[in-house]
Structures are given as C-alpha cells and as structure tokens.
Specification:
The chain has 21 helices and 14 strands. It is of the alpha/beta class. The longest helix has 20 residues.
C-alpha cells in the first residue's frame, strides 16, 4: 500500500487530502486538512499575489508538510489553480514554496483543471449526460460531457472571491449586490457559445465548497436524514428559497446560519448568484451535487491509471469493491452471495414483479451485508445498516442507498425499528417496506446457501407450484449445512411472498 498526499491550492482555500492507494486500483481517504487562505484576494488591482496572502499560504503549506511527514506519506502531489495561474509573481511564489516547504507545485492549465474535475465526476456518478458547474474562488469552470466523453469546457475568470470583491462597496444592499452579480455572470455565460448546443435531458452537476455548503443548509432547512452530499438532488425551487433567504442578510447574520461555514459566509452569496444565473440561463429545473471534483480526479488517476484514458465503466461496482476490500470482507463469499441473490431475484420475479432497477439495491445490500462484522459479529446486520448509510457509494441515488441499508439490516431475523424507518419518510414510502422485506429474505437465503463459504451451491432453479416455491439447488459436494440454514428463512419467506419454501 502506498500513501500519498494531494494538495489543492485554490483561490479561496488550500486543502490537503491523504489517501491510501491499495492494490488493483482502489483507494481510500484517511485524513484531510483545510485552511482558508484567500490567495486570490485583491489580485484584481494589479495581478500580483499579495504578501499577506503569500505568507498565510506558506504557513498553511508548512502545516500540510508536517502532517504528511507525521502520517508517513510517500509522495506529495501539489497543484495550483486560477489565482496562481494568472499571478504575475507566480515564479517567485512557487520558488519560495519549494525553498521553505520542500513542496513542488504544478500550476494546472485551464484544460487540465477542467479535465480533472470531469474525471472526479465521471468516475463517481452514474449520469450519462451532464453539465458540470464548478465554482472556485477565482474562476468558474463549466464542463459538458455526453456518453462519458468530455465534449466542451469553459473557464470564466470570475469566482466567489473575485466577484465578492468586484461588487463590494458602492453602498449597495446585500440583495442589490447579488442582483448585480447575477446580471454580470449571465453576460459572461453568453460568451460561451457552445452552451446553446446542450442537448435536452442534460443534467446539471454542482461541484465545489459552495455546493457542499448549500447541501448543509438544505439539510438543516428540510431536516434531511442523510449526511451524504454526493448525489444529493436539489430542485431549483428549493435552491431559490435558500438563495432568497441568504442574499438579503448582512455578514453577521449569515455567519449564524446553521450549516454555513463561517469562513465562507462572506463569499457564499456570490457563489449562489452564479448558480442562480446558471439555472435560469439554461432553464434547469434541478441539479445534483457531486462530492467529487478535482482532488478525486487526481485520486482516480493515481490509483487507477487507466482513468487517464477512459472512465471507469461501472462506478457502483468499483466503489463497492473498494469498500469490500477496505472492510476486509471475504471477497469470494461476497461475490457468491451476490450471484445467488441475483439468480433468486430473477427467478422469483413472477411473484415480486419488481423492475430491474431494484437489482442495484439488491447488489449493494448483498455486497455489504457482512461489512458490519468489522465492528462486531453480534448484531452485525445493524452495523452494516449504519455503514451503508455512511460509506462512500458511487452510482446510486440516496433513496437506493437507504433501501439497500434496510435490506442488509433484514438479512438476519430482525424486524425493522419503526423509528429508524420513520427517519427516512421523505425518501421512502409505505410500499417500500414490503420491498425491503422481500429483498432482505433473498439476501438471507443467498447467504445461507454459502454458509460454509465454500461455494458448494453453484446455482438455483425455482419452480412455483400452487402455494409453494420449490428451490432446486445445483451442488458440488455436501450442501447439507447450506440447505438446512436456508430453510430457517421459511417463515419470513412465506410472510413476504405468501408461499411455502422447499429446498432440494
């Protein structure tokens, strides 16, 4: 295993992420440090990075270096974006960092930056046609892709920090400043000619700290039950409600908003004004927030170099396999339980009548049903439930993730706590309870049919005769333990499918 440090030096903040690279192209973040350095502040006057900002950045990078050394980081990959890219004193700044911190920083071109943001998104989201809006401190990136190919990008040299500074003062009220930024940014969007060629059904994807803060505020406003920002879907109507609430407040009141970072309170209105002009200009009715961006693009490239040439084809399977390895599950057992679960789902379709979309839910539950044993064997289904809800899962909606967590919880003989179910009433319906119980029984039987982890049950063939399901097993060796254990699910099977269970 190799441990790397990734430093992202932006116009607003500097971030260090420490990542473990595992064999076979997988990775896991193990530490993070962030500081608001405002490197791009006051650059508009003369194009120079200011001495105070430079000193603050070097102080931060020294801290990053210390943490990397203490953590046993093998190598550091450091990149800088818009502020450093256009700074007239770029060379002296980079030389000073190299001399004082021992860190060599690569200044990304606009294309390199856009490509890394795209790679972070495309390798972690199952959205075939997307328009990415990444709001930085000193620039805003727009990336258009279709069929997992990056088609166009644009970098507008205005971000949350620069626009805040540009429209500060003049005696304007906060809402007047916001309106001016909206109008100004809309004019900038008109210069991006290819935006007029965006195909219908293209989904907007928001990337960056301002979108993460937007999620936190929305979570507080709507009492959203998950802490997962990645793949959070926000209707434009909900966004406009939050924006209208924030844009009229002075800075002291903004800092008191729950979910809003105090370090970002002064620049968030400008970022939200950018979002407002973007969704209005392109008539977007909703957008999805990505927790992955530039840094994750670097992580994918380092852990899985093939992503330099083409995206990961199955982002869900990739993230699930990463978690199975990280939680040290029995990989062969997991694979066999997944295969048996899928066979059962397909052969019982005449009874449950669920569409193929539910196979995704079943796969997540089957692959992670035993991950809770990393905490404790007893009641591990309860721990698996929690871990699915709080793990980094790519390629699934929040609803699918919650359903999978409850299915994994049901793979043992335990009823769902009504209070736990009630927490997710905004994502689930009453009808979903039957879905969860049925899929839970499927995973339970599949796990039982590999009780000895020997894969002796190779396949299944289900016949539905009258009031019974006759499950014929294809075995190699003695499967007495497996069949006996699977039959203990008979009562739950009859309750869920209204059929007796026989296994031969």
């Amino acid at each position: 295993m190799e441990k790397i440090g990734i430093i992202d030096l932006g116009s607003n903040s500097a971030r260090l992420v420490i990542v473990n690279l595992f064999a076979d192209g997988y990775f896991m973040v193990c530490d993070e440090l962030k500081e608001s350095v405002r490197l791009g502040q006051d650059m508009e006057r003369d194009g120079f990075l200011k001495p105070q900002r430079v000193a603050e950045t070097i102080k931060t990078l020294k801290m990053f270096r210390k943490l990397c050394d203490a953590s046993g980081v093998n190598r550091i990959i450091a990149v800088a974006t818009e502020a450093v890219r256009r700074a007239k004193n770029q060379r002296s700044f980079l030389d000073e960092i190299q001399a004082t911190c021992g860190i060599k920083i690569k200044v990304l071109t606009a294309e390199e930056e856009a490509t890394l943001v795209y790679r972070g998104v495309i390798n972690s989201m199952d959205i075939p046609k997307g328009l990415i809006l990444e709001i930085g401190g000193g620039a805003t990136k727009i990336v258009y892709y279709n069929r997992r190919n990056m088609l166009n990008y644009a970098t507008l040299p205005f971000g949350a920090v620069t626009l805040t500074g540009l429209f500060a003062g003049d005696g304007l009220k906060p809402e007047e400043q916001a309106k001016k930024i909206e109008e100004f940014f809309t004019e900038q969007l008109k210069t991006v000619e290819w935006l007029a060629e965006i195909e219908p059904e293209t989904q907007m994807i928001g990337v960056g700290g301002s979108f993460r803060n937007l999620f936190k505020i929305s979570k507080m406003v709507h009492k959203y039950p998950l802490d997962t920002v990645h793949n959070f879907n926000m209707p434009t109507e909900d966004f406009l409600h939050i924006y209208d609430m924030i844009k009229v407040l002075d800075i002291d009141k903004k800092k008191k908003i729950k979910g809003l970072s105090a370090q970002r309170a002064d620049i968030l209105p400008a970022a939200l004004a950018i979002v407002k002009s973007f969704v209005r200009y392109l008539n977007m009715e909703r957008f999805t927030i990505s927790g992955s961006g530039l840094r994750e693009g670097i992580m994918f490239n380092q852990a899985h170099p093939i992503t330099l040439e083409k995206p990961i084809s199955d982002v869900l399977n990739y993230s699930l396999t990463s978690l199975v390895k990280y939680y040290e599950c029995d990989e062969k057992h997991v694979e066999h339980v997944v295969n048996l679960s899928i066979q059962l789902f397909k052969q019982l379709r005449v009874l449950h009548k669920y569409p193929r979309q539910y196979l995704k839910v079943l796969k997540v539950a089957a692959m992670m049903h035993d991950c809770g044993m990393r905490i404790k064997f007893y009641n591990h289904q309860r721990h698996s439930w929690y871990m699915i809800l709080n793990s980094t899962l790519y390629g699934v909606t929040h609803r699918e993730m919650v359903l999978a967590a409850f299915v994994a919880h049901c793979h043992k003989r335990e009823e769902i706590n009504p209070l736990d179910w009630a927490r997710f009433k905004g994502l689930l319906t009453d009808d979903d309870l039957e879905v969860v119980r049925r899929l839970g029984v499927i995973v339970r039987i599949a796990e039982s049919l590999d009780r000895s982890h020997s894969a002796c049950v190779k396949g299944l063939n289900c016949d539905i005769l009258g009031d019974s399901v006759i499950m014929k097993t294809e075995v190699e060796g003695d499967a007495g333990l497996e069949i006996r254990d699977a039959l203990t699910a008979g009562a739950e099977f009859k309750k869920s499918f209204h059929k007796n269970l026989e296994i031969l």
